[in-house]
Amino acid sequence: MAYETIIVEVEDHVAQITLNRPDALNALNDQLLGELVSALQEAQGNDKVRCIILTGSDKAFAAGADVKMMSDKTFVEMFSEDFFGAQHDAITRIRKPIIAAVSGYALGGGCELAMMCDFIIASDTAKFGQPEINLGIMAGLGGSQRLTRFIGKSKAMDMNLTGRFMDAEEAERAGLVSRVVPVKKLNEEARAAAAKITEKSMISVVAVKEAVNRSYETTLAEGLLFERRVFHSLFATEDQAEGMAAFKEKRQAQFRDK
Ligand code: HXC
């Protein structure tokens, strides 16, 4: 499909989606989020795709929801259309792993979009923030919920109440991002991580994604039981037999997603 606000490239089993509204620092509007959801669903349905990378430009992953689009909206409009609710839910229903490769600004809805991905690799120039408070509003796509679970109450309150930006080093220390790399290496590092994932059994990959995400939805006891049962169930797969045989035979496993 032809897109105007994103670029999609599929290569080596990885779909790389680049947000591409440079004049607005990739601010999220209806068109961009609509195209992003379509591209993610296309990647989900494409058997060749085993991992997804979501990225922006060196200057901005995304500087938030499009303020110019939102500024004249009323409460009734925002509420009636459940502003960005459907897009949020669609993104979080993607079962394949999504790596966010973040450089520059990831603010407001941009930070929240990065947090909807499965993990974040940041460049050393990345800046995360929930500056909605400066606009007389607050976070609306996870900035008060996911961020709090990821980095704890004190830092989440700090970010949401003061609107300050967090640099990549602090974001890594706080657990928001999994690794920080020089900006010139960001794409290479994200692609290397994605390549590693593409070699695994997709059954394990999807099971891992479901189990880790479950930990945010349930009690520890229920989560541990869910994990154990899914773990048990993987012994019904050919990939388990292959993975363990390959280990014993000291060779690379050839997974077939069966
Ligand atoms: C619309 C935006 C934008 C945004 C930047 N631009 N962010 N347009 N919505 N969120 C536009 C600017 O208007 C400008 O266009 C161009 O991008 C370049 O931005 P500058 O401000 O000139 O760049 P710079 O001086 O480098 O400052 C970068 C910045 C600043 C610090 C990122 O742009 C900024 O503070 N942006 C807003 C960040 C923000 O408040 N995000 C939260 C939004 S609310 P022109 O045409 O003027 O040159 C949100 C809610 C989510 O995200 C919840 C949804 C449910």
UniProtKB/TrEMBL annotation:
<dbReference type="GO" id="GO:0004300">
    <property type="term" value="F:enoyl-CoA hydratase activity"/>
</dbReference>
<dbReference type="Pfam" id="PF00378">
    <property type="entry name" value="ECH_1"/>
</dbReference>
<dbReference type="InterPro" id="IPR018376">
    <property type="entry name" value="Enoyl-CoA_hyd/isom_CS"/>
</dbReference>
<keyword id="KW-0456">Lyase</keyword>
<keyword id="KW-0276">Fatty acid metabolism</keyword>
<dbReference type="GO" id="GO:0006635">
    <property type="term" value="P:fatty acid beta-oxidation"/>
</dbReference>
<dbReference type="InterPro" id="IPR014748">
    <property type="entry name" value="Enoyl-CoA_hydra_C"/>
</dbReference>
<keyword id="KW-0443">Lipid metabolism</keyword>
<comment type="function">
    <text>Could possibly oxidize fatty acids using specific components.</text>
</comment>
<dbReference type="InterPro" id="IPR029045">
    <property type="entry name" value="ClpP/crotonase-like_dom_sf"/>
</dbReference>
<dbReference type="InterPro" id="IPR001753">
    <property type="entry name" value="Enoyl-CoA_hydra/iso"/>
</dbReference>
<protein>
    <recommendedName>
        <fullName>enoyl-CoA hydratase</fullName>
        <ecNumber>4.2.1.17</ecNumber>
    </recommendedName>
</protein>
<comment type="similarity">
    <text>Belongs to the enoyl-CoA hydratase/isomerase family.</text>
</comment>
